[in-house]
Amino acid sequence: MNPKRGQLTVFFIIILVIFILGFLVIRLRVPVQPIQDDLQTSQMTIDSFVTSCLEKTTEDGISYLAVRGGYYQPPRLSDEYYSVVIPYYWYYNESLVPDITVIEAELFRYIQEHLNDCIDDFKVFKDMGYDVEYGLAMSEPAIKEDSVFVEMNFPVTLTKEGSSSTKDRFSTEIRSDFYYAYSVIKEVIEEQKKDPDMIMVSSMARLSERYNFTFHIDTRDDAKVIHTISFKDDTGEEKLQYNYLAQYDWSDLQ
User: What is the pLDDT along the chain (254 residues), one digit of tens a residue?
Assistant: First the structure.
């Protein structure tokens, strides 16, 4: 056998062994990184998931409250019409329009009680093999001129194969005409004080041109009137409907 060919054969065998050993070392070390990458990806996903649920719950809450005069838990002076409990904003000679901070507190209650309707105990993440721990969601809604902003403290921890990641702050801002509707009604009630037992049709008509909304007045028995104002989008579809009740004294007309 040629000594040089024998040396080359040994050399190539050594190189092959080194290559195989190196490949095995890399293969054994690689799984750690995918777990971290997977956890980071899932953390971004859970951030998006919780934020989208917060957005949906807030949007639903805005619509729910607006139809009910800004309340999640109706006040004592309310009446039910069409299976909806509507509060009085005008009761004989008294204004009962709630402060905007009261409505923000009502939106807080709605979010607290309905957020998990969307999150569903993070079942979608648990089904993917993650352990999910989370605390109490504490939201801080702020009703602005043309939007509703909600910041929420909600600690969520994902754990998988010994690695964990935590996210505790979420927020969303939603375009909304809620404040416009509320401001319109406050202005109408201010006009109402001048004529306590008059339906303020002219004020509504004037304000509807300024704020681009439609209004409806439904007179019920015993001088009770349901006032409704509606905002629509560019396609004509209703975006927001806001209701309130007024109780007048029409005994002199009977």
Answer: 555 445 545 544 554 445 445 544 444 444 444 444 454 555 568 889 999 999 999 999 999 999 999 999 999 999 999 899 999 999 999 999 999 999 999 999 999 999 999 999 999 889 988 899 999 999 999 999 999 999 999 999 989 888 888 899 999 999 999 999 999 999 999 999 999 999 999 989 999 998 889 999 999 888 999 999 998 877 778 889 999 999 999 987 65
Collect all residues with Cβ–Cβ distance below 8 Å to 243 and sequence separation of at least 6. 66, 67, 68, 69, 84, 86, 226, 227, 228
Ranges of each domain in the chain: 32-69+100-174
Query: Phi and psi at residue 236, in whole multiples of 5°?
Result: 90, 0
Closest CA to 137 of 154, 150, 115, 125: 154
Largest alpha-carbon pair distance within the chain?
A: 129
Contact call for residues 75 and 163 (beta carbons, < 8 A): no
